[in-house]
Hints:
Blueprint: E1 11-13, E2 22-24, H1 27-34, E3 41-45, E4 56-60, E5 63-83, E6 99-115, H2 129-141
Parallel strand pairs: 1-6, 2-6
Antiparallel strand pairs: 3-4, 4-5, 5-6
Pfam family, one: Dcc1
Protein name: Sister chromatid cohesion protein DCC1
InterPro entries: Dcc1
Amino acid sequence: MSTQYDVDIPFSANHNQQAFKLLELPPELLALLESDKPPAITITSSPATATTPGYAILCSGDKKYQMRQKNTSNPIMVLQPSTTFPTEADDAATFIPVPSITTISKIEDTIELIVQEAETKAPPKVNKWHEKFAKSRLEKKG
């Protein structure tokens, strides 16, 4: 049989919700930031092209991470300790505040960091059908 306790923690929501973004750090970047000599971090933008938009890039030393926003299936609530206030039914002179919790922000998306690979100087091979055809003809002759 379960035990029920008669201890309540009052919970309330602040009407003026604050804006927060949570940043998920890869373990290696977290270790660097927690080290005795943490590196400087900068946020830049990748160049936009005709086919792709520019992305926010987090730079730390020689590592670059693309920043992507992703939605969470369940919102994350940021809580702050608070105390209760007297209501109209309470006597303000004898009211004793009770510790409570107040939500100050509801976060529905986070920012993830994706390691960017080093840029290559040569353009990627397209492998068009005529290149494949020419290659197979050379292999047959040889």
